[in-house]
Write a structure and sequence with these properties.
A hairpin with a 5-residue loop joins β7 and β8. This protein is of the alpha/beta class. The protein contains 17 helices and eleven strands. The strands form three sheets. Strands 3-2-1-4-5-6 form a six-stranded parallel beta sheet, with helices on both faces. It has a three-stranded antiparallel beta sheet with strand order 7-8-9, covered by helices on one side. It folds into two domains: 237 residues, Crotonobetainyl-coa:carnitine coa-transferase, domain 1 (Rossmann fold), CATH 3.40.50; 84 residues, formyl-coa transferase, domain 3 (2-Layer Sandwich).
């Protein structure tokens, strides 16, 4: 790992202790990746624009004046506020890039290179460097320079067309394109670190939001290739398995259930809705027939579920040992018994005091997730410069010409 004697590891050891990441990042995709690496112990130095910072800092003020998105994605990091458009700023970033293990950027293709931080240049200076670019469509191809946001990628990659009700398509509420590419980027970086242990060399990673969502389309391409089917929009239901989804009970609560096998269908009809006659109905005898006759079946089951309250349906499903649950709002999820039992809500420091965050979902017996503060803009700038060997006078001069803030 990169040599950084001035940065001591304190507290419990973690899987990525000693790994240093330099992140020229903004918004969601790369920041989520670097947050995952930081959770595992990596030192993440986040480059931010002096006076402004990551664009997410200005999106809202929900967390007692801090932006919710910034708090979500950027605790556990060090904020390095430096103007990379100034020659002095570029030189410092180049010096840092020569000392770190990973360089992560998610600007439009060509921007990092124009700034002087292209993969060829940085990897030549640091052959062990793992250089990861995250973009909308990748570093080449006809869509290379097309502007990309999560909403647009959801549309281009087929997600919106297959989501929503028959009457109207819908986007996925969370930024799934950003999250998908960030997970691939994290996996790729970890794999590259592992490979470097064998070869001694870094490599270049080219990840795109479009390809990440494309690879998540699952069974849809296979139904198109082999049956010519475009996925219909089925609202809260499953595209190929039915009954599967939330059904409204008489008390206004949605009961969620999954009937995924022939055995489950038998148990559901006999013990849950008490309609054994449906087992002999030729429209419903197989999974594919139930799918073909979805409209008739759904109306029938919806009508049955409206006859009883949710508690009774949940009890019946529990007795029948069928998968089930309810549809919860955010308040209910945050107070969910499993959320509490697994201690998924933790407190981290921030410029406005301790704030709650959702903890890392990754649990490792010997590598507890880190919970360091959300940094104030430029909070670590001077410390990082001192670690690089700059004097107080040199730092003061950089402040005076606004290279740093």
């Amino acid at each position: 790992m990169a040599d950084n004697p001035s940065k001591r590891i304190t507290g419990p050891r973690r899987a990525l202790d000693g790994v240093r990441v330099l992140a020229l990042e903004a918004s969601v995709s790369a920041p989520h990746c670097s947050r995952l690496l930081a959770d595992l112990g990596a030192e993440v130095i986040k480059i931010e624009k002096p006076g402004e910072g990551d664009i997410l800092r200005g999106w809202d003020s929900a967390v007692r004046g801090l932006a919710s998105g910034y708090v979500w994605l950027n605790y556990n990091k060090r904020s390095f506020a430096i103007d990379v458009k100034k020659p002095a700023g570029r030189a410092i970033v180049e010096k840092l890039a020569a000392q770190v293990d990973v360089f992560l950027e998610n600007f439009a293709p060509g921007v990092a290179e124009r700034l002087g931080f292209g993969a060829a240049k940085l990897c030549a200076a640091n052959p062990r460097l793992i250089y990861c670019s995250v973009s909308g469509y990748g570093q080449d191809g006809p869509y290379r320079d097309v502007k990309a946001y999560d909403l647009l990628i959801q549309g281009e990659a087929g997600v919106i067309a297959s989501t929503g009700s028959p009457e109207q398509p819908a986007k996925v509420s969370v930024p799934i394109a950003d999250l998908a590419v960030s997970m691939y980027a994290t996996s790729g970086i970890l794999a590259a670190l592992y490979e470097r242990e064998r070869t001694g060399r870094g490599q270049v990673l080219d990840l795109s939001m479009f390809e990440s969502l494309l690879s998540w389309l699952g069974y849809f391409p296979h139904h198109y290739w082999h049956r010519g089917e475009e996925p219909e929009r089925v609202g809260m239901r499953h595209h190929f398995v039915t009954p599967y989804g939330p059904y409204l009970a008489s008390d206004g609560v949605y009961v969620n259930l999954a009937v995924a096998t022939a055995h489950d269908w038998t148990v559901f009809c006999q013990q849950v809705i008490e309609r054994p006659d449906l087992l002999d109905d030729s429209k419903f005898t197989t999974s594919e027939l139930r799918r073909a006759n979805r409209v008739v079946m759904e109306k029938l089951i919806e009508k049955v579920f409206l006859t009883r309250p949710s508690a009774e349906w949940l009890q019946r499903l529990e007795s029948a040992r069928l998968p089930h649950g309810i549809v919860r709002g955010i308040a209910q999820v945050l107070s969910h018994p499993q959320t509490i039992a697994r201690q998924m809500i933790q407190q981290v420091g921030s410029p406005v005091g301790e704030v709650p965050v959702i903890a890392s979902a990754l649990r490792m017996s010997d590598s507890p997730p880190r919970l360091d503060p959300v940094p104030e803009l430029g909070a670590d700038t001077e410390a990082i410069l001192r670690e690089l060997g700059f004097s107080s006078d040199e730092i003061a001069a950089m402040k005076a010409d606004q290279t740093i803030s």
